[in-house]
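Q: A small favour: would you put together sequence and structure tokens for a protein?
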Amino acid sequence: MGMPATQTLVVDYVSKESLQAGNSLNMAVSSLARALGPLSGGFLIAGFGLGSPFVALIGLYVLSLFFSVRLPKSHPKERSGTSAIREIGDGLKYIRSNPVLFRVMLIAFSVILSAAMVPIIPVYARDRFDVGEMGFGIMLTSWAAGQGFSALWIAVKKPWERKSSPILISTVMFVVGDITFALSTNFPLTLISLAMIGASIPIWASSTITLLQTQSDPRMIGRVMSVFSLSLQSMMFGWFLGAWIGTIIGNAQMIIIGTLLYLVVNFGLILTSRDLRRL
């Protein structure tokens, strides 16, 4: 519920020229939380016991609620009066009726393919490199660091005139990083590949989100971003596919095949649409 609401509010509070920077800052905060959250939780558990991270989380939610209620009010431009289920159906029909939005949403759902490598990270930490829990944490930190630096860079740079171009660039970055990760037997090289994978994500996501926001009718943005949030949750299905297929054909082979399919989907959807290439 929070994710589409936040992404919709960005449109209300940020100028159109700064939309991509605003979306990227949202991602930077998430990346920072993923990097510092486990570390902070470990210190809290060591110093105050197992329940302390949950108490801290409650405190953070209270603080978040305080700032949320102080935001300027944002009201829908029009209330339909229909049921929530009907409105969800209307949102899906709206996306399907708009060729550009439909293609961008298909790009969003390609995360199912890119997420297939995620369950292999702990497998490589244990079986390929034998680095234990600490090494596994370093691998995740490399990912989060690449993502955080990339998100902050997008937030301060001049916006891209065409949002489709960075999607293609980030796709290439991801493919190079992912195939390197799949084949690498060198731990430092693996960390570099994970940082590259992480760095590609904010470029791809902020461009995709900005396209969805700018190409949607203002009255439909909430429903469109709700569908986008569903695409992000579909990553968990990608995790399942990665773990399952990896046990059948091999982890490296699964990663390479999934990554190449991800490349084909993103490039195919953009390069075969003149309207999307111009955006």
Summary: The first helix runs from residue 2 to 13.
